[in-house]
Structure formats: C-alpha cells, structure tokens
Amino acid sequence: MDKSEFEKGKQIAYRFLSYRPRSKKEVEKKLKEKKISGENISNIISLLEKNNYLNDREFTLNWIKYRMENKPGGRRSLEYELREKGIDSEIIKESLDEVYTGEFDEYDVAVRLAEKKISSLKKKQPPQSPLTKGELGGYLKRRLFSYLHRKGFSFSLIEKVMSDLFNAESIESI
Fold this sequence. Notes:
single chain; mainly alpha; 3 domains
C-alpha cells in the first residue's frame, strides 16, 4: 500500500464529502477518477465508514427527505435516483417505506403537485383555443396524467388522484 497515495485519496474523499453527503459508490467513483488504486480505495472507504463519514442508509433517508421537501416526486423517480447513486435496493425500499409512512404521504404529495400543475395549466392558453368546458377537462387530464407519470408516481396512484380531483370538484373550481 502506497502511503502517499492513501493520504492523497483520503484528502480527495474528505473534500468530496465536504460539499454534501455522498453514497459509497459516489466516493468510489470519484477516487477511481483520480487514479487511486483499488486497495487504497477499499481502505479509504473502510476508514470513512468506520468514522461514520459514509453511511448509505443515513444518506438514503436524508436524500429522500431533502427531495420531498425541495423537489417532490413519486416513489419510482426516487428509487431510480438512488439506484444511480449505487444504493442497495433493500436500503432504498426500507428508507422509502420509512419516509412515506412517517413524514410524507405519497398520495398527499401527488395531490399537491397535481393542484399546482392544474393551476399553471389553466393560466396557459391551450393549443386549440378556445376550448369548451369538456375539451378543457380532457386537455387538463391528459397533461396532468403525463406530468404525474414523469414525476415518478404509479399509474394506480395517478388514477386515484385524478379521480378524486376531477370527480370531487368541477374543473372550474380546481
């Protein structure tokens, strides 16, 4: 083991972690980019985990909470992001279950996003203007469905949200 390379790798890792928490895979990738050897990467990762600078479970919980507060989305989009960061699927599932049964409810998040999107869609002029009330409803439903789907919500949840929003109130009162 090259002591100077190990020290250099440690400094790179500390600097990388100083900006925001990272997953184990993100730190490994960064060290590989900086041409640190595999043995030193393993030792650095072990040191960081031992000193609790790296903890994928804690990282996952914090990432989900941050995203739900600042850029909310559905379960699928969060799963995808976390898989891209190298988080184990079991940790992802447990963390999502914990967050969605605790502080956040996926249905409430979807309704909040849907109401906000409907408001912004109604302000914009639809492409085939002017639309009758029925045509406007169809336009809003199509646009809202695809918006919620892009945000990572499941089809069954989207259908429930849309059913509740469009059946409980008229389009004009949303």
